[in-house]
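Key result, reporting period 2: structure in, sequence out.
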């Protein structure tokens, strides 16, 4: 059984020790935590499938974001730095991994809506799947899909609903008004969110 543990710094005149508390305790697995803006998300096994839970650090309350029934796997949450959005993957295991794509779901805590913003090719699980998982920050969601046999980085604008193909690559990272990613050719690509400027290995 995996447990989600939160570490918190405590001010001290001598040192800065950490206190920890056990956030979850059950017979099933809780794993893959992501934190931002006072919100902590993780995926949990409920005995039938994977679901997403969200813990509010200020109020101490936990809500279950997903409950889709047997066989629907909701996993790999990512919380944006301000805590408003949670993005995660959703997959119907009844269809079989080799025939079904992975939907990318976005939940808005402010309005309460959840919608599909993209699809990941079923090959996302090959090799190192963590290099292809969706991430959210500000108005943007990024993930890795496939064009033919080549992995590509995709960028979704929450406000406009527009998706862009940024080109071949994997491990996309959002921050400081940029998307950066690794290429198959071992170089770093970058895309500036403010004006769409592109560069290889820096501006």
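The corresponding designed sequence is given below.
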């Amino acid at each position: 059984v995996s447990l989600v543990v939160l570490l918190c710094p405590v001010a001290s005149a001598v040192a800065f020790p950490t206190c920890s508390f056990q956030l979850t305790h059950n017979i099933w697995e809780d794993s893959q935590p992501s934190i931002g803006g006072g919100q902590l998300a993780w995926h949990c096994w409920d005995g039938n499938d994977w679901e997403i839970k969200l813990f509010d650090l200020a109020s101490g309350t936990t809500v279950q974001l997903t409950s889709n029934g047997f066989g629907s796997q909701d996993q790999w949450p990512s919380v944006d730095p301000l805590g408003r959005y949670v993005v995660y993957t959703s997959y119907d295991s009844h269809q079989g991994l080799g025939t079904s794509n992975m939907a990318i779901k976005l939940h808005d805590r402010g309005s309460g809506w959840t919608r599909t913003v993209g699809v990941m090719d079923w090959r996302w699980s090959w090799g190192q799947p963590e290099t292809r998982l969706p991430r959210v920050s500000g108005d943007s969601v990024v993930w890795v899909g496939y064009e033919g046999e080549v992995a590509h980085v995709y960028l979704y604008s929450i406000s406009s609903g527009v998706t862009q193909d940024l080109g071949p690559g994997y491990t996309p990272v959002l921050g400081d008004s940029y998307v950066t990613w690794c290429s198959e050719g071992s170089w770093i690509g970058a895309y500036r969110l403010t004006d769409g400027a592109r560069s290889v290995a820096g501006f």
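The chain has no helices and 18 strands. The chain has a mean pLDDT of 82. This case is discussed further under Risks and Mitigation.
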